[in-house]
Inverse folding.
């Protein structure tokens, strides 16, 4: 028994040695790559990481043809992302707190490129054949086929995220999601936030400076009695000025009984006129004029000694136009198209049942899987066609004006004319009817 086991073991070792000798240098290179995989820290520092999708998107766009190139083109477009349990044992825990945000960044892979090659210059469809650098566009054909989109977060049910305003194909591998925070992600919002922070900080600094000056004056008065006495003399001098001013107004025939002009420390007798006459006997007009002149000089000197308030610009970098974009984004050579439906296409679209409507399991009418109504589907179709989803080649060189694309469970046939697109037919994608189990599952996700 032992002999037979030993012979089998020796044969196994010989087979391994033979395989190793045939591999040769390739075996050494494999060992090097294995060593790099064993050292994740070194691989991470060099940027050589192995990604793993957190989930795969269930989208209303099943093929590339007709999928919006940007998320804002088709607002009613909808999708669902379910976090895989292979990423987290409790996927729903990873979504706690995300419900407080209205939008999320979705980082994904362009998995339908068909090849991994890329070129330094590309031809964006909106430039109608003109070439620009790949990094100045959002072309899917990039050295690293990574995509980034800003999607609206509709709701979260368990481990599933419900999204709208998307531009991704069904089955798209999603690598990560992050909350959209305008204060961090939007330059314009960031500018206004910085301005408010700067203004509040400036006001706080001014308030703190005034408080510190008042505190210093109080401390100085307590430490220096002589200065305190001088301050009293100065206040008496000001009181004399006030009385002189009242006397001048009395002589001019102006009313002098305003409560705002009588300071609180003085409790004047009832015979106010006699008091003023007594003051007039001791204070000459020359003295009053001298006192007033000295007061005006003090005010003038204080204005001169007071440093002018410095006008500081808000601490922003760059020009007033805080964010800029290429001119062809706002005014592309290819403009938007008008979209219209034939009466037949409108009737066919009205036959579709919304995704959240219960029952009708035995109905022969087609049903949407994600879209909520025929009106929402019509708005999505208009959004897709108005942006002219055709490629540059199809637009300029192809004689066939018919165009086909799929939206949710509807297959749309249309054609393009000069400045318009017309929907000719809307029919259900095969199979035309989902079974009851699939309907129940889709209704659960759609209705919440």
């Amino acid at each position: 028994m032992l002999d037979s086991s030993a012979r089998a073991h020796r044969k196994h070792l010989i087979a391994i040695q033979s395989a190793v000798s045939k591999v040769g240098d390739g075996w050494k290179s494999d060992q090097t790559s294995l060593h790099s995989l064993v050292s994740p820290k070194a691989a991470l520092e060099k940027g050589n990481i192995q990604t793993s999708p957190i989930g795969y998107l269930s989208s209303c766009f099943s093929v590339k043809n007709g999928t919006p190139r940007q998320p804002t083109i088709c607002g009613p477009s909808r999708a669902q992302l379910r976090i895989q349990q292979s990423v987290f044992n409790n996927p729903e825990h990873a979504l706690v707190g995300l419900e407080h945000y209205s939008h999320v960044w979705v980082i994904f892979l362009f998995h339908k490129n068909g090849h991994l090659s890329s070129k330094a210059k590309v031809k964006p469809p909106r430039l109608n054949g003109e070439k620009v650098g790949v990094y100045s566009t959002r072309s899917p054909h990039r050295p690293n086929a990574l995509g980034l989109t800003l999607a609206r977060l509709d709701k979260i049910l368990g481990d599933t995220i419900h999204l709208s305003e998307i531009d991704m194909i069904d089955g798209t591998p999603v690598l990560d999601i992050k909350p959209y925070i305008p204060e961090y992600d939007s330059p314009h919002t960031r500018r206004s936030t910085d301005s408010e922070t700067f203004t509040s900080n400036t006001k706080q600094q001014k308030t703190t400076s005034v408080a510190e000056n008042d505190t210093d004056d109080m401390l100085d008065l307590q430490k220096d009695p002589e200065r305190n006495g001088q301050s009293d003399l100065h206040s008496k001098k000001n009181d004399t000025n006030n009385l002189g001013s009242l006397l001048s107004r009395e002589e001019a025939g102006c009313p002098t009984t305003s409560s705002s002009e009588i300071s609180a420390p003085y409790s004047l007798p009832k015979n106010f006129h006699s008091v003023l006459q007594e003051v007039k006997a001791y204070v000459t007009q020359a003295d009053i004029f001298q006192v007033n002149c000295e007061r005006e000089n003090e005010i003038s000197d204080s204005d001169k000694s007071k440093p002018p308030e410095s006008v500081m610009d808000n601490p922003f970098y760059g020009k007033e136009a805080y964010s800029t974009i290429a001119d062809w984004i706002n005014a592309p050579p290819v403009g938007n198209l008008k979209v219209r439906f034939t009466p037949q296409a409108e009737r066919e679209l009205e036959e579709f049942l919304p995704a959240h409507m219960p029952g009708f399991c035995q109905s022969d009418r087609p049903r949407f899987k994600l879209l909520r109504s025929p009106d929402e589907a019509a708005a999505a179709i208009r959004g897709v066609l108005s942006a002219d989803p055709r490629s540059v080649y199809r637009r300029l060189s192809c004689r066939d004006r018919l165009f086909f694309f799929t939206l949710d469970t509807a297959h749309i046939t249309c054609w393009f004319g000069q400045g318009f697109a017309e929907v000719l037919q809307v029919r259900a994608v095969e199979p035309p009817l989902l079974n009851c189990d699939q309907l129940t599952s889709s209704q659960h996700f759609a209705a919440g």
